[in-house]
């Protein structure tokens, strides 16, 4: 009886209770859960946008008339910048795994700059739309534009912009960790988590750009 108990105890001690069985850490599980819930939130925004747009007699404006060709081209460039920052994030992780932390830091700077450029262009676009296209949005008075379009546009792009801002701050923290030697080859999973979030932000923006600017 004692021998059987000892064997059971040894078997239990061999079980990986660190949360990394099958290569899945608790951090990954938590982040994937968050991203799944966040994806449903974005899906709700996009579904609401589609419902309002394709309602009969919605008088939905043509995106080309609202943003203009130049505005859409600027946003297309902004989308390209965000995609490039997602690619640079892949390099951050790969260089960290290889142990080349100096190159990893350089790639992280590229990622952070890409996020800041995206936010800067989006801020410029918002300023232009609110002051010139939708001047009564904050000042009151007669409304000569589609309120549903303005509301859903600002909600979608603003919600996504908040995610980008959070991602930039997260990446700055990762960069400081790399610079101070607190993030190394041994705990590169921290960068992997940041990369998952950043790729999610990139993917969502591609959907938003397609729905709002192109269709």
UniProtKB/TrEMBL annotation:
Superkingdom: Bacteria
GO MF annotation: an example: cytochrome-c oxidase activity
Cellular compartments annotated: Cell membrane
Main subcellular localisation: membrane
A UniProt-annotated Pfam family: COX3
Keyword Cell membrane: yes
Domain Heme-copper oxidase subunit III family profile residues, every copy: 28-215
InterPro entries per record: Cyt_c/ubiquinol_Oxase_su3 (IPR024791), Cyt_c_oxidase-like_su3 (IPR000298), Cyt_c_oxidase_su3-like_sf (IPR035973), Cyt_c_oxidase_su3_a-hlx (IPR013833)
Keywords: Cell membrane, Membrane, Transmembrane, Transmembrane helix
Keyword Membrane: yes
Coiled-coil ranges per UniProt: none
Bilayer topology term: Multi-pass membrane protein
Similarity remark: Belongs to the cytochrome c oxidase subunit 3 family.
Name of protein: Bb3-type cytochrome oxidase subunit IV
């Amino acid at each position: 009886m004692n021998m059987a108990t000892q064997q059971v105890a040894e078997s239990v001690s061999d079980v990986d209770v660190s949360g990394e069985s099958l290569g899945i850490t608790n951090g990954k599980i938590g982040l994937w859960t968050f991203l799944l819930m966040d994806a449903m939130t974005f899906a709700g925004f996009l579904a609401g946008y589609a419902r309002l747009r394709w309602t009969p007699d919605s008088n939905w404006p043509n995106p080309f008339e609202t943003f203009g060709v130049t505005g859409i081209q600027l946003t297309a460039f902004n989308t390209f910048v965000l995609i490039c920052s997602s690619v640079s994030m892949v390099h951050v992780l790969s260089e960290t795994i290889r142990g080349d932390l100096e190159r990893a830091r350089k790639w992280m700077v590229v990622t952070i700059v890409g996020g800041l450029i995206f936010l800067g262009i989006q801020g410029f676009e918002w300023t232009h739309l609110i002051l010139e296209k939708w001047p009564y949005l904050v000042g009151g008075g007669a409304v000569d534009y589609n309120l549903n379009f303005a509301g859903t546009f600002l909600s979608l792009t603003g919600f996504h912009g908040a995610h980008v801002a959070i991602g930039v701050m997260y990446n700055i923290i990762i960069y400081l960790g790399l610079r101070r030697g607190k993030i190394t080859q041994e705990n590169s999973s921290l960068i992997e988590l940041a990369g998952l979030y950043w790729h999610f932000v990139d993917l969502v923006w591609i959907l938003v750009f397609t729905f709002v600017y192109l269709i």
